[in-house]
Specification:
Elements: H1 5-10, E1 18-21, E2 25-29, E3 37-43, H2 58-75, E4 82-85, H3 89-92, E5 101-105
Antiparallel strand pairs: 1-2, 2-3, 3-5, 4-5
This protein binds adenosine monophosphate and zinc ion (ZN).
Length: about 110
Amino acid sequence: MENCLFCKIIAGEIPSQKVYEDNRVYAFRDINPAAKYHVLVVPKEHIESVNDITAENADTISHIFLVIKKLAEAAGIAEHGYRVVNNCGEDGGQSVNHLHFHILGGEKLKTQL
Ligand code: AMP
Ligand code: ZN
């Protein structure tokens, strides 16, 4: 989608530190890490937010969670644990309107909620 930061990253028009890619998913380091390990996992398809998940694209979402699990294992953080975060919409604090899941770990995270 035009003028979408993450679509541009996926297309290689804006540089990123890629950690994983397949036909449906792209994962890269967050530019402003909030933990020692902070990776964003995004669908290649432009889905705006959790509000736009449908029966048709739900397969991609479950695939994203399999990728999250594999990335955590590969990074050596799975055993100690990590946090998966999604911010949805304005009140949720979403700043990029292309669905993304944060993986945060590599250290003891501050308690939230
Ligand atoms: P959110 O606030 O949940 O929408 O998360 C957006 C995330 O994108 C933030 O953690 C930003 O640090 C991150 N971000 C913004 N621009 C870039 C970029 N060019 N490359 C990597 N991460 C980015
Ligand atoms: Zn996009």
